[in-house]
Write a structure and sequence with these properties.
Helices cover about 45% and strands about 20% of the residues. The chain is α/β, with parallel strands linked by helices and about 325 residues long. A hairpin with a 4-residue loop joins strand 1 and strand 2 (about 10-20). Helix 5 (about 160-170) runs parallel beside helix 7 (about 210-225) and helix 8 (about 230-255) runs parallel beside helix 9. The structure holds 5'-O-[(R)-(carboxyoxy)(hydroxy)phosphoryl]adenosine and zinc ion.
Length: about 325
Amino acid sequence: MIIVGIETSCDETGIGILTDNIILCNIIATQENIHSVYGGVVPELASRAHTERIDILFNKAIRESGIKISDIDYIGVTNTPGLKGSLLVGVSFAVGLAYSLRKPLYKVNHLYSHIASNFLNPEVKFPALGFVVSGGHTTFFYIKNPVSFNVVGRTLDDACGETFDKVARMLNLGFPGGPYIEKMAEKGDETKIKFPVTLLDKTSLDFSFSGLKTAVLYYIKKNGLKNIQDICASFQKAVGDTLIEKTSRCIERYRVKSLLLGGGVVQNGYIRKRFQELSDKRGINLFIPDRNLCLDNGAMVAIMTSFLIRHSVSPSENIIEVIPT
Ligand code: KG4
Ligand code: ZN
């Protein structure tokens, strides 16, 4: 069973090829150099870059995996959530490919794919708690089985990665901001500045990061940019405290057997360490994808597609609706 996964929901063009639980290739073309001058993703530029690259990337993926195009059995593509123009490029390409090869086509939710990056590990047990911490989302899922996802908590304003990006911008660091903040934080003192940890009401599983973002802004206005390393370390600690407290609440409320993380922010070594400590303390099995599977990529779409097939979810007709957010 050879599955092609196509990902173009935001600013990464990704093609992944999967066979029998083995990732044959996972090629990603990032657009960081296109958007970095603007300090954020520019939707029109993103979709244009996807259009220019997707065909080249697909052919490269076929060559790298050592298969022929006619060997492809199934195609999966991200159709939600994401930027409309970006999603349309991947979906149009996938529809054309499926139609020309006369192969089944599956629409895939981007957030489920982030979590599905963990599903190839046979140790993952259900029900599970899934937590996507990315540039666009901070969302908890109760996952009954690999194809049944229910949202149980989400951010009410900025996403966690977005907050990293905005704070990095205030500090004149690069884009995307997460890796820059992580690097700076390594040399900083996380106890130097007390930034707010917003928990909303006592039982809430939702997030709000706008207060933290504003607190950093006011700190900089008052104190300038003298101690960037301490600002980064203290900010990162406040984010870590928030993520861990909310995850603890979820674990308490739902009887889950595994904790599955996904999304760009969980590439952060400090955040990974905090989750490992939580897992040890709570005795819950923690799964975090390899770093190349944390960022947006095609392999995660192929993995999610393989579970849709296994669970007998029907493929789409040769028309797929794009649902941006
Ligand atoms: O999952 P992703 O590639 O795209 C979305 O679906 O949003 O995540 C990108 C986000 C960006 O906001 C970026 O700043 C953040 O992941 N990120 C990090 C790190 N690496 C990437 N955040 C914190 N620490 C990192 N090392
Ligand atoms: Zn993503």
